[in-house]
Amino acid sequence: xxxxxxxxxxxxxxxxxxxxxxxxxxxxxxxxxxxxxxxxxxxxxxxxxxxxxxxxxxxxxxxxxxxxxxxxxxxxxxxxxxxxxxxxxxxxxxxxxxxxxxxxxxxxxxxxxx
Amino acid sequence: xxxxxxxxxxxxxxxxxxxxxxxxxxxxxxxxxxxxxxxxxxxxxxxxxxxxxxxxxxxxxxxxxxxxxxxxxxxxxxxxxxxxxxxxxxxxxxxxxxxxxxxxxxxxxx
Lengths: 114, 110
Prior knowledge:
The complex is a heterodimer.
Chain A: E1 4-6, E2 10-13, E3 19-25, E4 31-38, E5 42-51, E6 54-57, E7 64-70, E8 73-78, E9 87-94, E10 104-105, E11 109-113
Parallel strand pairs in A: 2-11
Antiparallel strand pairs in A: 1-3, 3-8, 4-5, 4-9, 5-6, 7-8, 9-10, 9-11
Chain B: E1 4-7, E2 10-14, E3 19-25, E4 29-37, E5 43-49, E6 52-56, E7 59-64, E8 69-74, E9 83-91, E10 98-100, E11 104-109
């Protein structure tokens, strides 16, 4: 079974703090994704990575950066957290050549920025 | 207008009822996914469709490519079916990125 894990389930940070969210997958997937999920807006793509050190901006990259130094690990960084980044953050992974788009999701991190 | 629209946004049903959730999309797709998200956050894949119909237990998913429409049906609903159901499409020409609907929140009561 594919397993995608995220470093924290719940996180409380203060405005201006640097925040790291980490995602690890154990199925050698090339693709990894970071989403945020807000009520009424659904899942929105922040960043996508299709290989080590490769990244692509999603729909809402402003205020975020990412790092993928190893194939299994994809980090989301909030350089200076703001209250409007309070949200649920979900990581996912998929095979590059699968062709169906099936993604495997982590359990999510609920981030509160005070 | 969103590329993927779901209806209804919220749905309350009594145990045993037949439930239908709808998904319409406006782009060419190569696959459509139905996902389930329970309270607590984790998302699991229920179905991947490119044509026709699939069934798994009490869940049935159908897709009409010409009409750009898919439905998820739950027969004999149960309180444990309470969750958010999300429709997502893989656009034609996109290898990996999904476009998501905003979800349908289903609550099944006793």
